[in-house]
């Protein structure tokens, strides 16, 4: 009895992980394959499949199955009338059958095509925003029948899956809004699964606390996401006015170091400011450049190693003032470097190390470009990273040099 309970709890906990996992991809194929594997895992079924519903042709077609390869599956259509999946779509209800061969709704064509013999089925409709997306079926429970618990867990998975599928389709229209919505759904699906779990009476005190902590951190992330997104949307729309003034870079560096000193101390990271005296005042929007330095410095701290170092340095060239933010951290794999400044991009290996939104560097780039500057990165895995911010040196009066004659 107690064992059954723990097993169920493990299953529910697994659902939280799965929900996060589902919300973290926009690739429809990857997503669907994750869903069917999760479905077999939580229901203990031999196989699982997803049929997607095509609104226009009003037909169901096999999209993915754990027990068929792509070439077998491709093109298998299932009619709305005379199939179990069709019945699920029409009635928007769950179906649980011990032996499909005794059921008049069973569509035997699939079995003939694939050679897979089905006995028991647990099928649920995938519905989001009152719209039916498809059907998720778990097939063949090796020992006995599908249970009430199997059904309720599959329903939770189905709810997450429907949202994720719809979302992946939405993303095909890829714009800032749909990217943002997708990012919102990761923390939101964690939150909704967490609250669902809190409502379970069998949840132990300790587990409740764990879930509440989870809710707290996801809420913080949502908050950060919302403000970063607004910043970025404003910058991208070109509505942001830069208010330029002359200021000392060294002072700005010390100010940023102070703001993040608690964060640096947590991992025992030393932040050093090394600005030569002769770097001239920068003529730029101080608040915005401060946002850039804070973003780069917080990354340098976040993706550092314990007892690491960060150096803030400035230099001047003929036409530019350059800010360097250098760390002794994890480094960035070469194949990730071209994507660093893309919205929502995060290095996969870093995701578990620190919380983030993947918007910081996009915001930096917008601000720097808005000032007529550019940003470069040099990095080596396991050694460290240096971000260089080049800003025009507006101190000199414009040189009146004749353009070179050709
Ligand atoms: N100094 C750094 N060292 C290693 N990786 C970094 C560094 N700065 C940024 N990155 C990588 O670039 C990604 C994007 O950075 P950013 O846009 O600031 O997002 P976030 O900080 O929210 O993760 C980070 O997730 C991280 O993987
Ligand atoms: Mg960042």
Structure description:
It is a single chain. With 406 residues, the protein is α+β, with helices and mostly antiparallel strands. It folds into two domains: 2-172, GAF domain (Beta-Lactamase), CATH 3.30.450; 244-392, Histidine kinase-like ATPase, C-terminal domain (Heat Shock Protein 90, 2-Layer Sandwich), CATH 3.30.565.10. Helix content is 45%, strand content 20%. Helix 6 packs antiparallel against helix 7, helix 7 (176-198) packs antiparallel against helix 8 and helix 11 (286-302) packs antiparallel against helix 12 (360-370). It is elongated, with a radius of gyration of 27 Å. It starts with a helix and ends in a 14-residue tail after the last strand.
Task: Describe the structure concisely.
The protein is α+β, with helices and mostly antiparallel strands.
Query: Helix proportion of residues, in percent?
Result: 40-55%
Give the helix/strand class.
alpha+beta
Residue windows where pLDDT falls under 50 for at least 5 positions: 397-406
Q: What average pLDDT do the residues reach?
A: 87
SSE pattern:
HHEEHEHEHEEHHHEHHEEHEEHEE
Rg (C-alpha, Å):
27 Å
Strand content: 15-25%
Total domains, how many?
A: 2
Oligomer: single chain
**Main beta-sheet annotation:** 6 strands, antiparallel
CATH superfamily of the largest domain: GAF domain
CATH second-level architecture of the largest domain: 2-Layer Sandwich
The CATH topology assignment of the largest domain is Beta-Lactamase
Instruction: Tally the beta strands.
Output: 13
Shape: elongated
Question: Cofactors and ligands present?
Answer: adenosine-5'-diphosphate, magnesium ion
């Amino acid at each position: 009895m107690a064992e059954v309970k723990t097993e169920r709890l493990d299953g529910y906990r697994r659902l939280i992980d799965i929900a996060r996992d589902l919300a973290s991809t926009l690739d429809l194929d990857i997503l669907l394959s994750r869903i069917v594997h999760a479905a077999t895992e939580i229901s203990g079924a031999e196989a699982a499949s997803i049929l997607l519903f095509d609104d226009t042709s009003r037909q169901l077609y096999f999209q993915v199955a754990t027990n068929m390869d792509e070439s077998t599956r491709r093109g298998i259509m299932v009619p709305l009338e005379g199939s179990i999946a069709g019945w699920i779509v029409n009635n928007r209800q769950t179906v649980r059958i011990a032996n499909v061969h005794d059921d008049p709704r069973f569509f035997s064509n699939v079995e003939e095509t694939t050679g897979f013999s089905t006995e028991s089925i647990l099928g649920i409709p995938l519905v989001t925003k009152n719209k039916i997306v498809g059907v998720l079926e778990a097939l063949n429970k090796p020992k006995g029948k599908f249970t009430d618990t199997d059904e309720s867990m599959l329903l939770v998975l189905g709810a997450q899956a429907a949202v994720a599928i719809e979302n992946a389709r939405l993303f095909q229209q890829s714009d800032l809004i749909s990217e943002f919505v997708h990012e919102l759904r990761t923390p939101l699906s964690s939150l909704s699964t967490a609250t669902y779990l809190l409502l379970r009476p069998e949840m132990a005190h300790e587990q409740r606390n764990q879930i509440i902590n989870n809710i707290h951190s996801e809420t913080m992330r949502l908050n950060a996401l919302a403000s970063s997104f607004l910043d970025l949307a404003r910058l991208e729309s070109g509505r942001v006015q830069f208010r330029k003034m002359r200021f000392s870079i060294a002072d700005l560096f010390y100010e940023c170091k102070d703001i993040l000193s608690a964060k640096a101390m947590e991992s025992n990271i030393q932040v050093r400011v090394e600005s030569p005296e002769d770097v001239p005042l920068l003529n730029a929007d101080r608040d915005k450049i401060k946002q850039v330095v804070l973003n780069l410095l917080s990354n340098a701290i976040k993706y550092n190693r314990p007892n690491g170092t960060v150096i803030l340095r400035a230099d001047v060239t003929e036409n530019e003032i350059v800010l360097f933010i250098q760390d002794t951290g994890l480094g960035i794999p070469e194949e990730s470097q071209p994507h660093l400044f893309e919205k929502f991009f995060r290095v996969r290996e870093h995701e578990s190390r620190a919380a983030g939104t993947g918007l910081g560097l996009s915001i930096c780039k917008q601000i720097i470009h808005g000032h007529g500057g550019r940003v470069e990165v040099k990095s080596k895995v396991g050694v460290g990273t240096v971000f260089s911010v080049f800003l025009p040196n507006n101190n000199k009066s414009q040189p009146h040099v004749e353009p070179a004659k050709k």
